[in-house]
Amino acid sequence: MDKVGGVIVAAGRGERMGAPINKAFLPLGGRPLFLHSVLTFEAAPAVDTYVVVSHPEDAAFCRALLAPYGLRKLVAVVDGGAIRQESAAAGVRSLPDVCCLVAVHDAARPLLSLELLQGAVERARDGSRSSSPGTGPATLGAALVVAVPAKETIKLVDESGQVRDTPDRRRLWAAQTPQIFRRDLLLRAYAEAERDGFVGTDDASLVERLGAPVEVYQGEYGNIKVTTPEDWRMAQALLEQRALVVPVSAERGFVPAAAAVAAPGSVASGLARPASVRVGIGYDVHPFDSGRPLFLGGVEIPEGPGLAGHSDADVALHALMDACLGAAGLRDIGQHFPPGDPRWKDAPSLALLASVRSMLEAAGYTVNQVDLAIAAETPRLAPYVERMQQRIGVVLGIPPGNVGIKATTSEGLGFVGRKEGIAVWAIATVVNG
Ligand code: CTP
Ligand code: MG
Questions:
Q1: Per CATH, which fold does 263-432 belong to?
Q2: pTM value > 0.70
Q3: Which of 70, 94, 102, 292 is 20 to 30 Å from 411 by CA-CA measure?
């Protein structure tokens, strides 16, 4: 039986959303936008395996958000390209060779239902069986685009704003994703589009250029594309209406990693829990190392210099993890991520923070609010603070307003003042349950 591979493209910048981070990672209904599609692909029996395509700058962040979910079918997080078409092509090319059918889906459509994905893949599978590869365009089957009949009358308008035509609405459909293709056909479509310098707004249009038949499959009007803040509000309303908003407690319960931390006899299980709110403090210092990239608060700062130390040496996240662990009585990061362990060499600290969140939740705690003070003489951190708040907030499952970040210099005094390194203090408040 042909294997089916999924490609979830999330490598855009989300510029029209106007948020400080890619819309794909903003929390919608309790989880980052792109995770809605990821979990749907993970749950669909018709999909055997899939990849997520992210912007190279977001790759570590993206992996950190995926890590706690224990996704069995996810094979890779792949770097995308400058335009959607390149991202989708990179994803399709990275799928295992056994995948003869591919379903390409925009992460920006978080409301894709399991039924629609299943139905569309099964239909494409039937189509691919009835066509034979390599027999010329006329018989190429298994290209299917999920679409909905246009409800509005669509006008064709020229550059001067004059209506030129009113196509018959009965023949107009609005294309959505997923779009499903025989893989060899889609790879050929990408190659020919690249050769001709053709850019299409969806994958089907590239296949249509080959003269191959493309079938529509009735989609759902609720499978909207989230592009602007208005779409965002619409998606939120639809999620609520479908009762798909995962209550925060249930969502947190889904995170499976590191349950062992709270196993009987562990530090966590021995805790008395008299207070509903607990506070933890963390402090960390790392010396500069100009040979490494600088990561601070989960954000890469190109000005550098980098820092020496454990994992990616993100001293701010290290202090923060210690604060979170301390608040829950779970010792410190050295205990959970020993520095000598090769698994943590250059590891993104955001991924470690995601594991820390899981550890706290397994022990019955949820992070409520965190606050960091970063002492650095260089570089200037103000331009990055908002992104740090957003990223930390998404990983910890709290609003960015609950992530305090203050950067200060040390007025030339001490080791910070002499530009020998960066020091960070962090506190975290956690609540039971
Ligand atoms: N996409 C991608 N690679 C790109 C551009 C877009 O993988 N170079 C993805 C987006 O992440 C999104 C989907 O393609 O899931 C549809 O694109 P769009 O809604 O336009 O998202 P963005 O490009 O991120 O948004 P904007 O155009 O507003 O910047
Ligand atoms: Mg775009």
A1: 60s Ribosomal Protein L30; Chain: A; (3.30.1330)
A2: yes
A3: 292
